[in-house]
Amino acid sequence: MDKFDICIVGAGVVGLSIAYELSKRVKGSCNKIVILEQESSFGQHTSSRNSEVIHAGIYYATGTLKAKLCLSGKELLYQHCKRFNIGHKRIEKLIVAQDGDQNNLQAIKIKAEENGVDDLRWIEARELQLIEPAVRAQSALLSPSTGIIDSHGYMKSLLTLAEQQGVIFAPRTKVESIIPQDRGFDVVTDISNGNLVESYALHCDRLINAAGLEAQTVASSVESYLQSQIPSLHLCKGDYFSYSGKCPFQRLIYPMPPANTKGLGIHATIDLAGQLRFGPDTAYIDEVNYNMDPAKAEMFADVIADYFPTIQANQLQPAYSGIRPKIVADGMPAGDFVIQRGEKFGMNGLLQLFGMESPALTASLSIAKLVADSLEI
What we know:
The strands form four sheets. Strands 1, 2, 9, 10, 11, 12, 19 and 20 form an eight-stranded mixed beta sheet that branches. Strands 13, 15, 16, 17 and 18 form a five-stranded antiparallel beta sheet that branches. Strands 6-7-5-14 form a four-stranded mixed beta sheet. The protein has two domains: 165 residues, FAD/NAD(P)-binding domain (3-Layer(bba) Sandwich); 144 residues, D-Amino Acid Oxidase, Chain A, domain 2 (2-Layer Sandwich). The mean pLDDT is 95. By secondary structure, it is an alpha+beta fold. Helix 1 packs parallel to helix 5. The chain is elongated.
C-alpha cells in the first residue's frame, strides 16, 4: 500500500489552495502529499461555475469565517495574481438601490464597516448617471476593492506550484471508503481509465476532505464517523445568461440583495474579455444538474430591468449554471463555512470542510492557511 503524509480529497479551488499552502510549509520534510479528484481535471464544479468575482467581504455576518476569511483572502489573492501573472482586474462594483431602499443600502455599508471593509463610497443618482449612464438607481455604494479573476488560470497556478514542490495529483480517482487506523487512515478508491475501473488503496497520516459538492458523501464514507455530525447538503443552483452586444457597464452592477439569504440577486458581471453576463438566480434542487432553460431569459430580463431598463430578453443567451454546496435549507438564515476537526470524534488527523460556497474562491488562500494552522503544519 502506498503511503502518504497528507491526502487531500477534492481538487477544487479550496483543495488546490490547501495543497499549495501545505507544500510551501513542509517542503523536503514531507514524504508525499496527494490530491484525489474523481473528475478528469481540477475545478470542474463549483470552482469553475461561478461569477469569477473577487469579493470585498461586504455582506457576511460579522465574526463569521466567511467575513474574516474573505477580507484577508482578498488581499492574498490579489498578491498571488500579481506575483504569478494571473489574469485579474480591480474592476470595482456598484450596489444599487431604488426608491425606498436607501436605508437598507446604508445598513449594508454599516455591516461592511463592521467586517473591516472601510473603503465603500456612497454615490447619489447624479454621480451614478455620470459614471454608469446605462444604470437606473437612486443611490449606490461603490466598492473599489471588488475585482474579477481568471479562475481557471488561478487554479492551474495553484496546482503547478504545488506539483513543483512534489504534490501528486490523481484525477479520475473516486474515494469509496476511508478506514481509520491507530495512526492515520486507509483510503480505498476506484480509478477510472475509460471503461476500465481499478481499485486502489493508500494510507495517509492525515486526511483533508475538501470535496465541495461531494464533501458529505466523502464524510459518510469514513468508517465509524458520527453521521449526525455531518452537516446536511442542500444543492442550490444558479443560472447565468450572457448578453449579446457591447457591454454597457464599466463596473460590476449588483442590485440590493433579496431578503431570502440564498444569494445576492441577479447581478451583472464582466469577465476579463469584456463579456457581460447576468446571474445567478437561485433554485434548490435534488441532484447535480447543469441543464438550463432558455425560456428563463424573460424572467431574467424582468428582474434586470429594475437597474438596466433597456434590457431585452432576446439579448440574453444561456451561458452556464453552477451549484452551491449550501448547508442550510431554503428559507433558513445564511450558513457559514464549517471546518470540522476529527479530534473531536477520536479521529486525529482528519479535517473536513463543508459549505464551501461563495466567497470560498476569494477566501481560498486564507482558508488554506487556517487549515494548515489547524493541522499544526
